[in-house]
């Protein structure tokens, strides 16, 4: 990682269609452990909000790592059919982290 690179955070809410909530929970849950093992994944968390929305929080070492993740067949299949699973468009945010991330910062000299 160069000194100008910072980890990428991706986070947001997904509101499933009521009749598909269990299926969305199962699909999203199935992504957690495989994603955590992907090169460049620093964090991957799934939460279920009290109003039924799912909240995802991801941190990636680089844009390249996130792009590789987004190209995985299982995620592509889910994303290509997203409108059949959700009531409305995802509420998502994508930012470069400003705070240092301990596992990606160069060791002190």
Q: Tell me the strand order in the biggest sheet.
A: 2-3-1-4
Percent of residues in helical segments?
A: 25-40%
Assign the CATH topology: Alpha-Beta Plaits
What does the largest sheet look like? 4 strands, antiparallel
- How many structural domains are formed by the residues? 1
Count of individual helical segments: 4
Cα(first) to Cα(last) distance is 16 Å
Low-confidence stretches: none
**What is Rg?**
15 Å
The secondary structure category is alpha+beta
The average pLDDT is 89
What's the CATH C level?
Alpha Beta
Number of strands: 4
Instruction: Give the CA-based shape.
Output: globular
Present the secondary structure layout.
Elements: E1 8-14, H1 21-36, E2 41-48, E3 54-60, H2 63-70, H3 73-80, H4 82-85, E4 91-96
Antiparallel strand pairs: 1-3, 1-4, 2-3
In short, what is this structure?
This is Quinol monooxygenase. With 109 residues, the chain is an alpha+beta fold. It has helices at residues 21-36, 63-70, 73-80, 82-85; strands spanning 8-14, 41-48, 54-60, 91-96.
Could you characterize the architecture of this molecule?
The protein is globular and about 40 Å long. The protein has one domain (8-96): Alpha-Beta Plaits, CATH 3.30.70. 33% of the residues lie in helices and 26% in strands. By secondary structure, the protein is an alpha+beta fold. It has helices at 21-36, 63-70, 73-80, 82-85; strands at 8-14, 41-48, 54-60, 91-96. Strands 2-3-1-4 form a 4-stranded antiparallel beta sheet. InterPro entries: ABM_dom (IPR007138), AI-2_Isomerase_LsrG (IPR050744), Dimeric_a/b-barrel (IPR011008).
């Amino acid at each position: 990682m160069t000194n100008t690179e910072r980890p990428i955070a991706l986070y947001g809410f997904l509101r499933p269609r009521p009749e598909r909530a269990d299926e969305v929970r199962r699909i999203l849950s199935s992504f957690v452990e495989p994603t955590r093992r992907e090169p460049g994944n620093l964090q991957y968390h799934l939460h279920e909000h009290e109003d039924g929305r799912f909240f995802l929080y991801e941190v990636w070492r680089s844009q390249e790592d996130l792009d590789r993740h987004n190209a995985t067949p299982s995620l592509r299949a889910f994303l290509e059919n997203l409108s059949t699973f959700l009531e409305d468009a995802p509420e998502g945010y994508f930012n470069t982290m400003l705070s240092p991330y301990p596992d990606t910062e160069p060791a002190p000299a």
